[in-house]
Amino acid sequence: MSEQKQLTMPVLGMTCANCVATVERSAKKAEGVSDAVVNFGSEKLTVTYDPAVASPQAVVERVEKAGYQVPVATMELPITGMTCANCVNTVERTLNKKVPGIIEATVNFATEKATVKYIPGAVTRADMVAAIERAGYGVVEAGSEEALVDAEKEAREAEIRDQTRKLWIGVIFTLPLFLFSMARDFGLVGHWAHESWVNYVLWLLATPVQFYTGWDYYVGGYKALRNRSANMDVLVALGSSVAYFYSIFITMGLLGGHVYFETSAAIITLIKVGKLLEVRAKGKTSEAIKALMGLQAKTARVERNGVEIDIPTDQVAAGDVVIVRPGEKIPVDGVVTSGRSAVDESLLTGESLPVDKKAGDAVIGATLNKQGLLKIEAIKVGRETALAQIIRLVEEAQGSKAPIQALADKVSAIFVPVVIVIALLTFTAWWLGGAGFTAALVRMVAVLVIACPCALGLATPTAIVVGMGKGATQGILFKNSAALEKGHALQAIVLDKTGTITKGEPAVTDVVVSSQWSAHRGPSALASSQTAAVGSQPSAVILQLAASAERGSEHPLGEAVVRAAQEQGLTLSEPAGFEAIAGHGIAAEVDGHKILIGNARLMESRQIALNGLGQKVQQLQNEAKTAMWVAVDGQASAVIGIADTIKEGSKEAIADLKRQGLQVVMMTGDNQATAHAIAAEVGIDRVLAEVLPGDKAANVAKLQAEGLVVGMVGDGINDAPALAQADVGIAIGTGADVAMEAAGITLISGDLRGVPRAIRLSRATMRVIKENLFWAFAYNVLLIPVAAGVLAFFPGLPVYLRELHPIAAAFAMAFSSVTVVGNSLRLRGMKIG
Q: Which residues are catalytic?
């Protein structure tokens, strides 16, 4: 049994001693936990566990399953010193296995950042940094978030400067070494070049390259081996060292044969070229998120005590009045209190046209005020602004691992040991086969040098980072890598009608009063003073009664009725006994009259006589209008026709989805006739009508049962279950927060045209990932055998293929990972809509 460890974590929700016992009992159920003690006073749980068996994550899951909450936090650590996928595995293993209090740590090789989910109070940043440094890597330190960005940038630039300096030293010594060695081998220089002292000169030239330019590989290889793993540094250090030290033995007369100093130097220098290009290219993968960070205004002009002052944006407090002149960036999220202007929101939403703003309208920080002067009340500042949340969401999503990466991770974990075994077998086979010690050694070095685990490690994360960054600049936010991956496989898109296809702001178009009600139970029959003041128009009386009843409703149709009454100047009464009847309508009492407003199902369930209005309802529905029945005192009195206008871009978006081969389905609570009329207007062939809010998820499940991979697009609270049920949930950004929480993709602008753009981006990103993985696997699967000499048995092939020189192997390895990163960067210039 390994050494037992203790971990203390806060637990919320405990109210009595029974809760304490429950938490302790639940924690002990986690495998590997030997003891669990709760301090009710401090609301903390201390567990004793075997780290080889149990994990903090398992304990947290047990406690939360019992109905209590363990607060967790997330931190990002910029890591330095990682050179390949094995380094990623080492850092992840160090944090997950050796630092108590960390629930989960994932490392993104492309961004060189570790995302750590941890228990506050159980572990500190200093603990994490110390563990990472013990593993042989570094963490960028900074005092504040802004300083962290600057410090990280400086650390990256310092690394590039250091690598560039080492590369030039390598080039200065390797170039004459290589040219002279080649000239000597081809007989282009005199006999003096074969004197024994010349090899000492070559040794002298090769040494700075081996131990200055190549020192990083020795350090990296040592750290990896110390942590019981192996990475690219091990292969490079091993391959170049074999050539270098073998040449020393020959130079000193301990062995006979040809020296390979130029080979060891060229291997290190060429691979250094590739790594430097890779570092520069990796920096470009996250340019989109850096651009978002750069959008934030540095200063804000605020009005305090009647005086305008300029202050740093991070000093703006909620409630401050911010003054934004034409041409200036809006520094924080807020509401316009005075002024009119057009605001360019394109950098956040992807929408090219400026949006008109007036008093009462919300504005987003980092957008550009184009025309008039605006006074804005600050609502969200600092980390709470939309821009800060977008950046945080994108960074978290970029740090997540896509399911497709799992295979590459498994291969990377065993790649280097397998290559070393192949190299040893290659040496043994050729030496015992009679090729000679030197020839066998050269092939072994070629195998060690040509293998490239970096390409495998970079294949997925670089494409994910670039793809998500591209999406963020187009107003498309992916919750995680899994959502991005699933998006490419979608076969059907379900569109919620209200707020998604339509504006969700319906307007009253018709008020049709029953002739029977008007003749026998019309205005004269209503005895209230409120209705008497309306006048004798039956339609006005009905609208006043309906609007009064709907005052308690938050449904868009109810709000449309209230808005129509207010526009006509009607005085509304306060409803009594308001009742919302899910999927049917509402019931209320207005001025002593019992009012029912809703669909035909409501009238049928309450056994209301329809008074000959059925034909008019059919006519309204044929016109794609929603017919709302109004019953007064148990009699159908009128039908109110309401139409919701189609959003700009909806038709275009639906046509685009169809061109991409997707089946488009509209889901709505409207009746069949109304639903099909709207569907026909926007070009949708399949309609799910009369769907109750609670049945949306079930209808999505039915489509999935047909074998379809389904995406659900919605914006309301009642869409959240369906968004969660779908393979990919897509939330319209103008909708409810709970909908966005349940969705895998969020469209900031609320424009439906973002849906086909998101799917196109997902497909393009997955195509690039598959290309990268194919290249990474194919490169290693094909070229390692070539380096091992399998083509030597085909005499008809060129010599350079039958006997792959280690320098050629180093050249191929140096540019393999650069190729992967370069392919990912193509996504930056791709047009998605």
A: 496
